[in-house]
Amino acid sequence: RSPQSNKEESAPPVKDAFGGDLSLQSDDLLISGELPKIQKPKTGKKLVGIVTSVEKKGVYVDVGWTADGFLSLNDVKGYVGDGRKIFDLQQRIIVWIKQVIHEKSLAKSFTVTMRGKRPRLLSDLKNGEILTGEIVALLNYGALVSIDAEQDAFIHKSQMGQVVWQIQDILAVGDSVKVKILGIDVKGKKVWLRLLDKQSLSILTSEESKENCSEVDSILSKDFGIVPDDVLYTIFTFLPISSIGTVRKLCPLFERIIGRRVDMNRIRSELVCFYSKISYSTEILGLGMSIKHYPRNQYTNKVGPIESITPTLDLLGYSAYHYRGQRVGVWKEPFTNWLPLYLCPSHGRRALPLALTSIDQMFAGAGTDVTSVLEILPKLLNTMVVNTMEGSLHESIRALQGYCYFYHLLLALCEDNSNVRKTADQRIQTFLDGESGRSKKSVQSLGQWITYLSISDHFSWNDPEVSVRFLEECFDRNVKWIVKDHPRVYNRLTSDDVRLRIIFSKTEVSRGLIMFHVLFLKTLRFDPYICGGKKYLTTSEVKSRLDRTFGRPDYQMESIIQNGIKSIKAVSSWDQFFQMLDVTAPSKSYMNQWLCQSFRNSERRGYHRNLRY
């Protein structure tokens, strides 16, 4: 052997950035001496190569042909930022012929790979495909995953199923993960993924739902479970009314039967006009609305935008409003407009055309049906949440009833006109795309914007990107009111503990509204009777559920809201606040950085005056 050969043989193996050995470790291939000559490179052929030239973006490899092959860093398993840090001249490595470009050319005539014999081409991958991969690198904003393709794929931290502050908290190099392909850019050689098996979402897959339904299934298989629901309900009708509430709490089976049947009978008996006592079956029922506008435009004399809408929550019939001129509620609250409700499909067929006309009148005819719907009903939903936060427990149940009425109507309008949901999804996406899409000019009310999530099947509060972006914008907008009373709270001389305590105290109303909005979203989008309340419902399933209860909350919903209100009022720390939102709480230092960054954002975006705070 030549001295050069001895030098190569004695050279220590070169490790990649993650501890993997890139050197030759195969007994069935030549590991020293001169390379055998090959007549023609064939795609997929396994060869021994010697590194002849090292560059930042790759290396040239001699495999025994007339020209050297080029090994791109993209074809090295794992994340490699600079080839000069990984490879040495005359290093022997195992490669596979990837592609022959020009056989007769002597310059870069073929490419090689270290990923294996036949890595999958990006063009062979499909959107939505579920794969098992290996984490090969952790970055500040995501992770690279090897999926046995010609290019590693990327998972952004917003696609990891939970709020992630530090990638290292949930992933490590070498982890085996199940992923779903979200997008493929063949030309740009990029693949985007969503992490499936590391998520902590409360949204369950169908398989998980089946597993979590075992509690109800076990009850149904027992003695009471073999009795038809109708028979059990007939038995329950012989119980004193005072005992019904106790019996329904004994087990999930009784809760489901009594809850749905008793609530339905109670609700049906209340669906009458308070003025004429005519039932929903023969009358179109709705609610009175008191609308307050901002002052008229002094130049165009047009009616100003809607400042507030205050509904009366007592059902009023079409005849009483239009023919009898009824303009006050049960408690003499005056109102100016009337909004028909969608109680059930039969009632809705008569009410929807009138509802669209009424919404257009309230919006002063200033937009399309879609624009009017997405202005009036989200404002009403936000009003109900505010009333819940400010009222007593009894008043909160009344507000929940109003919320369900308006939410049911909004779902029906989405079903009647698909453009309503599409527009809401577009507004959500615009909000997520960048700061300009969630500025005060684009989104005047965050309370109205968050209600768009209630009618979306593509976005939910459980999506980390949605919840974190919303909180970021909310914190940016809070700065103006915080510095008004505490101008030095963001000063570097202020300790972290003092800053956290002051800002927590000053944002009580803002935090409360967010928690109540999330509480309402969770109450409506999770069915308490299925899988222990862990099954996330689609909008069509929510509408069907409200159809059964005539757009009213059932006993279980009321109980969830009441318990949620007590929990919200007991929140006394940032950790408890994030827990109520189902968002992973950041560390104290990260929270301080977040709040200070919100101050800088607010100043840069013109949310507060540029003073020396």
Briefly characterize the structure.
Residues 1-10 have a biased composition (Basic and acidic residues). This protein is of the alpha+beta class.
Describe what you observe in this structure.
It is elongated, with a radius of gyration of 32 Å. It has 19 helices and 14 strands. It has a 5-stranded mixed β-barrel with strand order 1-2-3-5-4. A 5-stranded mixed barrel has the order 6-7-8-10-9. The chain folds into 4 domains: 107 residues, OB fold (Dihydrolipoamide Acetyltransferase, E2P); 67 residues, Nucleic acid-binding proteins (OB fold (Dihydrolipoamide Acetyltransferase, E2P)); 57 residues, no CATH class; 311 residues, no CATH class. The N terminus is likely disordered. Helices cover 40% and strands 14% of the residues. The protein is of the alpha+beta class and 613 residues long. A hairpin with a 2-residue loop joins strand 1 and strand 2.
How many structural domains?
A: 4
- Characterize the main sheet: 5 strands, mixed, barrel
- Roughly what is the average pLDDT, rounded to an integer? 80
What is the tally of beta strands? 14
Secondary structural class? alpha+beta
Q: Percent of residues in beta strands?
A: 5-15%
Strand order of the largest sheet: 1-2-3-5-4
